[in-house]
Amino acid sequence: MMKPYAIALLVIALVWSTPVLAEEAQEFPGVSSGTVGAELVIADFNSGDKPNNVGGDFGSWDKDPNDESQGAKINFESGDALGDDTGYSLRIDYDVDSSNPAYNGLWMKLQNLDATKYNTLSFYVRGDVQRGFTKRVKIELKDNSGQSSQFIITGITEQWQKFSIPFEKFRRIKSWDALTEFVLVFDDINTNPKTGSIYVDQIALSSE
Predict the structure, then answer these.
(1) Is residue 7 part of a domain?
(2) Which residue range is the domain that position 170 belongs to?
(3) Inter-residue contact 107 to 181 (CB < 8 Å)
(4) How many CB atoms lie within 10 A of CB 170?
(5) Tens-digit pLDDT profile for residues 53-87
(6) The CATH number of the domain where 112 resides is what?
(7) Is the dihedral of CA 180, 185, 187, 190 positive or negative?
(8) Are the beta carbons of 173 and 167 closer than 8 angstroms?
(9) Residue 14: is its pLDDT beyond 90?
(10) Does residue 44 come out as left (phi exceeding 0), alpha (psi in the -120 to 50 range) or beta?
(11) pLDDT tens readout for residues 84-126
């Protein structure tokens, strides 16, 4: 029969020898295993109207509104990433198929949001099969110093996927206590096909 102190030593040895697996941040998506700790949903679009959940406005933008060969627009769509039939997501139609330099997308105000208690930006994305969709899109955060930082996600499909980006990937952001804007960018370099639609939902900050 094994003595109590021997059992204790065996348990300690097993704990120290068990590997701890960590999800690595990459430029392609992995479906998050879930949120641990605090979470703040910035926009779930479930009201089908503006503003977002933190009181900020949002809308589409494009580099040159006078160039009719490029642009973006947004629409609320019934049904959302979490399967709520009464909820909404946001569809973004984009067009960067222009002979001129072209980029456009979605802007969203964050109201000088204090994000110091969080460490991850997350959101759900899927493509529109009928309209076509890019598999790459650029994400940008801005702080109240005017500094901005970008990160490209890849691997968008026709199915909802949760993309989680650690704050450390936004290397140029210095003022995490005052985030001013979330921006989604389609450009004529990373976007293929150059016209299409993607859906976005459940933009959030979390401590994972």
Answers:
(1) no
(2) 26-206
(3) yes
(4) 21
(5) 999 999 999 999 889 999 999 999 998 999 999 99
(6) 2.60.120.430
(7) positive
(8) yes
(9) no
(10) alpha
(11) 999 999 999 999 999 999 999 999 999 999 999 999 999 999 9
Residue 12 lies in a domain: no
And the tokens for 183? 């921006």
Give the mean pLDDT of the chain.
86
Mean pLDDT on 124-132:
98
In a domain, 3, yes or no: no
Residue 124 makes CB contacts below 8 A (sequence gap 6+) with: 81, 82, 89, 160, 161, 162, 163, 200, 201, 202
CA dist., res. 103 & res. 100, Å (int):
10
Structural domain contains residue 13 = no
Extract the tokens encoding 131. Answer: 């309209």
How many domains are contained in the chain? Answer: 1
